[in-house]
Amino acid sequence: MHTTVGDLLKEQKEDLELELIAGEKSLERKILGPDLNRPGLALNGCLDHFRPERIQIIGNGEQCFCAKAPQKALQKALEAMLSFPSLPCLILTHNLQAPPVLVQACRRKGVPLLRSRLDTAVLVGGLSSFLENRLSPRTVVHGVLTEIYGLGVLIQGEAGIGKSECALELLKRGHILVSDDAIEVQHRRGGGLLGICPEPLRHYIEVRGLGIIDVKLLFGVGSILDHAPIELAVHLEPWSAQAKYDRSGLETRSTMIVGVRIPEIKIAVSPGRNLAILIEVAALNQRLRSQGYFSAETFNRKLIERMRTVPGGKKTSP
Question: How far is CA 19 from the centre of its chain?
Fold first, then answer.
């Protein structure tokens, strides 16, 4: 995925207080990643570890160097730095006055030069957030995303299995709906998944026999979220006498979404089973596991220790 300098200028002109100084004919240059670079060494002619694929931020330090450096040496360094075709653009912070040698070099090389009124730290934070949100890998999955006790739970299963009805029961129990039917999943930096409700579906849920329901009006504004981390997947499947189900909890399952593995449990659907309570308990149990406590392993360890004990209080050798 990528965006362009033109898109950045168009969408973030007001938020990041950006203005274009030079390179208006090169706004189609691609931005491929969210990382930014401070080109201090590059301005001095050292390009051994220069990262040209990143947006280059010119702050007070770089501006001071440009003002004091010999202009011919600076011009040569700029020519070399701006020769990389992968370089997206340069951004001046603090509303700094652009050095003439920098403006001229950007025009000759066709590299966009932008300026922001924001401080460097503020600009870097806002720009990184925008680029991460825009450039992170995404996909759309079918299911229902809820937040249960602060844990994002993705409920999946074949059509008609009861995902939306289960979400309604969870809402009645005080939990939160993020999205019904379609969830946009984004791979966030650090390996986490963020589930986002597409705008047309926000705070709506569809239940067979009832139709479209406005969750915000029925359950209140506190019952909905626009997005939430996805930390557990629950797969509902029809109960089968031939299928083998995990009864100890020692098995660990996972599923892959946008290159990230998250824990998964399978729950068999049969008459009389309260799926909402089962999913609620699964979320609580997953919270314990994320804190390092595994109920099934603890029980299994205690059981093995008990089996090793012989009458009289003695223990057999392992």
Answer: 29
